[in-house]
Automatic annotation (TrEMBL):
<feature type="signal peptide">
    <location>
        <begin position="1"/>
        <end position="22"/>
    </location>
</feature>
<dbReference type="InterPro" id="IPR005064">
    <property type="entry name" value="BUG"/>
</dbReference>
<protein>
    <recommendedName>
        <fullName>Tripartite tricarboxylate transporter family receptor</fullName>
    </recommendedName>
</protein>
<comment type="similarity">
    <text>Belongs to the UPF0065 (bug) family.</text>
</comment>
<keyword id="KW-0732">Signal</keyword>
<dbReference type="InterPro" id="IPR042100">
    <property type="entry name" value="Bug_dom1"/>
</dbReference>
């Protein structure tokens, strides 16, 4: 099912099933929106973008405060959220693909279960990979002139969302040495700015928030985006960055890189799981239906604002936003990959980085 088909089906389902619910008043309350990453990354910018808009649309206009709980590539915060019991809507949790991937891969540190949580909003994103100025001069739309360069990359971990760029660069025949252990993609960007890393990638919100300025200043050269999906599930140019080629285009132009076969199928499967449904807002398990519906309605009002498309394009990008039942179905899409893709990536992680997942 494509993202557009998903949006259409869930919209119809939402219109059919709309039970009468008690009115929820959140006057005087403070909602803590916990992000399991540092305050410098794309998830922080995503939550900080939506938080004031959500406050305006929730009944009683409660204060929405974004807090950060980085650690273990987001599994620390996700494991913590799994144990929380709130039924009044005062705790919201935001995940990203870096939370989804350890779950998908069977990482033994994962003690959380997505199906226990209550998704109220999900949104897609994209990603941009870029080079330092010196190496960027050698980029001609292919990676052919980059294959003899030793790159350094600040990474949260190979089982996180970083596996999408790491696998892409390997498929392009590039030598990229990850420095593992950073707490968020914003920290990777800071490594790049300090010259400690020579290649980087950011999700759309992170790129728009800071990395685009580096490109404008000539300190970074955009290499590729991961792309977006059209109605038939094909990878096309990212609508937020239409002038930057996709990984698929760069792969097609690079000697030895194939856009078919096991490696490509695995890369695309994890791209689909990690980006078109990339950031999700959850209420804890056991949240009453009326509270969940109130949040879904508030997020629906946010995405329906006349100015939403314009302000979103500047801060988080031009991507689909799902609410309520749409968020639930989008979450199922983002937390599912084929056994073949999972096996391929697990084998690749073992061979490339010595990572064994049991």
């Amino acid at each position: 099912m494509t993202i557009k088909q998903l949006a259409t089906s869930v919209a119809a389902a939402t219109l059919i099933a709309a039970p009468a619910l008690a009115e929820v008043d959140m006057s005087g309350k403070t909602i803590e929106w916990v992000i399991p990453f540092s305050e410098t990354g794309g998830s922080a910018k995503w939550a900080n973008f939506f938080a004031p808009l959500l406050s305006e649309e929730l009944p009683g206009n409660p204060t929405v405060v974004v807090k950060f709980m980085p650690g273990a590539g987001s599994t620390k915060g996700a494991n913590w959220f799994q144990e929380q019991e709130y039924d009044d809507g005062t705790l919201l949790f935001g995940t990203s693909g870096s939370t989804q991937f350890p779950y998908l891969l069977g990482d033994p540190r994962v003690r959380y279960e997505y199906s226990d949580w209550v998704p109220v909003m999900a949104s897609g994103t994209g990603g941009v990979a870029y080079l330092n100025a010196e190496d960027g001069e050698k980029f001609d739309g292919s990676a052919n002139n980059l294959q003899d360069i030793d790159f350094i990359y600040g990474s949260q971990g190979a089982t996180r969302l970083d596996l999408v760029p790491l696998l892409a660069w390997e498929m392009l025949g590039m030598n990229v040495e990850p420095v593992f252990g950073i707490k968020g993609r914003g920290d990777g960007r800071l490594m790049f700015e300090r010259g400690e890393a020579t290649i980087d990638y950011q999700t759309s919100s992170g790129y728009l928030g800071a990395s685009a300025d580096l490109a404008e200043q000539g300190k970074a050269v955009p290499m590729m985006t991961w792309g977006a999906l059209d109605d038939d599930g094909n990878i096309v140019r990212d609508p937020t960055f239409p002038d930057i080629p996709t990984f698929k285009e760069v792969c097609e132009a690079t000697d030895g890189c194939e856009t078919s076969g096991e490696a490509w199928d695995a890369w695309k499967a994890f791209f689909v799981a990690g980006f078109p449904v990339q950031k999700i807002a959850f209420l804890p398990a056991g949240t009453p239906d009326d509270v969940a519906a109130t949040f879904a309605e508030a997020f629906d009002a946010v995405r329906s604002r006349d100015d939403f498309a314009a302000i979103a394009a500047k801060q988080v990008g031009k991507y689909e936003v799902f609410v309520g039942e749409g968020a639930k179905r989008a979450t199922e899409t983002g937390t599912t990959v084929s056994p073949e893709a999972k096996a391929y990536v697990q084998n690749w992680l073992q061979e490339a980085y010595g990572v064994t997942l049991e």
